[in-house]
Write a structure and sequence with these properties.
It holds the Pfam family Aldedh. By secondary structure, the protein is an alpha/beta fold. It has helices at residues 50-65, 79-95, 97-108, 112-115, 118-130, 133-137, 172-184, 200-209, 224-232, 245-258, 280-291, 312-325, 344-359, 393-396, 412-420, 435-441, 476-481, and strands at 15-18, 21-24, 30-35, 40-46, 141-143, 150-157, 160-164, 187-191, 217-219, 238-242, 262-265, 270-274, 302-308, 363-366, 383-388, 403-409, 429-431, 451-452, 463-464, 470-471, 473-474, 484-491. The protein folds into two domains: 15-266 and 470-487, Aldehyde Dehydrogenase, Chain A, domain 1 (3-Layer(aba) Sandwich), CATH 3.40.605.10; 271-460, 3-Layer(aba) Sandwich (Aldehyde Dehydrogenase, Chain A, domain 2), CATH 3.40.309.10. The chain is built from 17 helices and 22 strands. Bound molecules: NADP nicotinamide-adenine-dinucleotide phosphate and magnesium ion.
Length: 494
């Protein structure tokens, strides 16, 4: 692939976005950006210094409160005014759809079939949160139970928020935090993941074009230690994180000590519970989206298929044929379904799981090779394992690659037990020809979301992980509340 084939406004950069301008970093280190389809380095970004981080947080604090004139901060704008900025930002993002898609694909290998929707999805998230402005404007007055007085329950933005994102959806997982933060009246410092530091710059450019005031959005790049320093920075009021469970735990511990509000969207190991009456053709249509989205690098996908014994072989055949029919290759090709793994280290992790599955006695019905079939890039052959038992590592641990495990159950009780026997609690799907039976079963899955016959995320509904999958919720009014702090003002009834 040559650079000419793609729209890549940013490749090698020296600057960070602080106080409304791209400013040269004072940091000494650099992080390279690699195209996972080729293994070639094509970009690089600075690693922010402590001074850069201090400047970004200070700018965000000034923008929050308004530096010169009291009442002139982002927090002081009427919610309807902030909503107008969000809508303008949405349109500016749509203008940059191709550059966002190509940069994202070159950073993490997500096929353009996926990344070409990133801008529209981001725009729709901003418009959704803009539509919640009335929630912030409607007075909430609650009488004392004895009728002696009343309380006005006000909502204040919490302050400067640290937004820390992973590499699998570098636009969406920033925007899911940025949109509610801005709507609430918060200002932010964003730290993207090291493999994907460039595509998010196009969101910042869109914010500049939308006229969002200086300091409201700041962007710093650098390693995990920069994320750690951001989480603990004295100027930060709240942390929003998406990423791995171990890093989430360490952030939660830091926020516990600081008594700093935190939302965490972490890993998962979700199940597709297939009932005996399943329509296999219908399931085949949504299988990849629900169980292998983004080359298996999606937190909520149902990577364990729980199949009834009486239909086990049929199901294994359907899943195998569906995965085999999906093309893997150049992620810039619109027909590609499976790209490479996002990084060399992720490729090695996924191959380790494939070896572990084979060693523990699982049967690969497709893939299963530890060679990719490609002469370069971080590809892993999409792999389906049958005869997987609940104790195997591939059945229990998050793989984050194109590997599906099919387990067998003989009673619904057993299926529910297997589905819930994991430390995670993020997603899950139920496949049945009977929508009422599927709906009745959903409450028995101990997870934050369940899809009946498909899985998709809805910006208007909370996306929340239970147990090791996280704390708090993103999206919906619940997602906005995470950026607000309440104040009860008691007054005499006039
Ligand atoms: P990660 O290692 O947890 O990193 C996530 C982000 O945190 C990156 O920006 C990373 O920076 C930063 N970071 C690393 N160490 C940190 C620390 N000690 N303090 C503060 N920030 C720190 O996860 P990843 O490797 O990027 O992504 C893969 C994982 O994310 C998977 O395990 C997946 O389960 C999870 N994930 C969950 C969801 C969800 O919504 N639940 C979505 C996507 C991914 P560097 O990149 O510079 O290290
Ligand atoms: Mg990591």
């Amino acid at each position: 692939m040559s650079l000419l084939q793609a729209t890549l406004p940013y490749t090698h950069t020296d600057d960070l976005f602080i106080d409304g301008a791209w400013q040269r970093s004072t940091g000494a280190g650099r992080t390279e950006v690699t195209n996972p389809a080729t293994g070639e380095v094509w970009g690089s970004v600075p690693q922010a210094s402590v001074a850069d981080l201090d400047a970004a947080v200070a700018a965000a604090r000034r923008a929050f409160t308004g530096s010169a004139v009291v009442g002139s901060g982002w927090r002081d704008l009427a919610p309807a005014v902030r909503a107008r900025f969000l809508r303008r930002l949405a349109s500016e993002i749509e203008e940059r759809a191709e550059a966002i898609s190509h940069t994202n694909t070159w950073e993490n290998g997500s096929p353009v079939a996926e990344t070409s929707k990133a801008a529209a999805n981001a725009a729709s998230i901003f418009r959704y949160f803009a539509s919640l402005a009335p929630l912030l404007e409607t007075p909430d007055i609650r009488p004392f139970p004895d009728g002696s007085a009343e309380t006005v329950v006000r909502l204040d933005p919490v302050g400067v928020c640290a937004l820390i994102a992973p590499w699998n959806f570098p636009i969406n997982l920033v925007v899911a935090k940025l949109a509610p933060a801005l709507m609430a009246g918060c200002t932010v410092v964003i730290k993207p993941a090291s493999p994907t530091p460039l595509s998010v710059r196009l969101i910042v450019d869109a914010a500049v074009a939308a006229g969002i005031p200086a300091g409201v959005i700041n962007l710093v790049t650098g390693p995990g230690s920069l994320g750690d320093a951001l989480v603990k920075h004295p100027g930060i009021a709240k942390v929003a994180f998406t990423g791995s469970t171990p890093v989430g735990r360490s952030i939660a511990a830091a926020c516990g000590t600081l008594l700093r509000p935190v939302t965490l969207e972490l890993g998962g190991k979700s199940s597709a519970l297939v009932l005996p009456d399943v329509d296999l053709d219908a399931m085949s249509q949504v299988l990849i989206r629900s169980c292998m989205r983004n080359t298996g690098q999606t937190c909520y996908i149902s990577t364990r298929v729980l199949a009834p014994a009486e239909r086990y072989d049929e199901l294994v055949d359907m899943v195998t044929a569906t995965i085999q029919a999906a093309p893997q290759g150049d992620p810039m090709d619109a027909a590609t379904v499976f790209g490479p793994s996002a990084t060399h280290s992720q490729q090695q992790i996924v191959r380790g799981y494939i070896r572990s599955g084979l060693a523990e006695g699982a049967r690969a019905t497709t893939g299963g090779d530890v060679t990719s079939g490609f002469d370069r890039g971080f590809f892993v052959k999409p792999t389906v394992f049958a005869d997987v038992t609940p104790d195997m590592r591939i059945a229990r641990e998050e793989i984050f690659g194109p590997v599906l495990s099919i387990l067998r159950y003989s009673s619904l009780e057993e299926a529910v037990r297997i589905a819930n026997d994991t430390p995670f609690g993020l997603g899950g799907t139920i496949f049945s020809a009977d929508p009422d039976a599927a709906f009745a079963l959903a409450p028995r899955l101990d997870t934050g979301s369940v899809g009946l016959g498909f899985f998709a995320s809805n910006h208007a509904a909370p996306f929340a992980g239970r147990h090791d999958s996280g704390l708090g919720a993103e999206f919906g009014p619940e997602g906005l509340r995470a950026y607000l702090s309440v104040q009860s003002v008691h007054r005499r009834i006039r």
